[in-house]
Design a protein that fits this description.
2 strands
């Protein structure tokens, strides 16, 4: 019984170690060596978790852009109010 479990475990480990991916479908049929997936890549590609990571990164970038645009608008308003308070020296001449 234990030997069967060990053999099954070895077979799945060997199958997992031979799994490889091509980075471009154009090269998939060629004789170009492919790199096997690391453990981290296997975890992230399982159940499409990579899309969750990409969505979080996209939300962070969108937040940064919104923050920059709001700060730019506020700075523009402050600059206008300062320009209105300070008289133009050319007008006095």
């Amino acid at each position: 019984m234990n030997s069967q479990i060990i053999q099954d475990s070895l077979a799945t480990d060997q199958a997992a170690s031979t799994v490889s991916t091509a980075f471009d479908s154009l090269w998939a049929g060629g004789d170009i060596p492919t790199q096997s997936l690391s453990r981290m890549e296997q975890v992230m590609l399982a159940d499409d978790k990579i899309f969750v990571v990409l969505a979080v990164v996209l939300i962070i970038w969108a937040g940064i852009v919104v923050l920059l645009l709001r700060n730019d608008k506020r700075l523009r308003d402050v600059e206008r109010s300062v320009e209105e308070r300070i008289p133009d020296p050319e007008d006095e001449l």
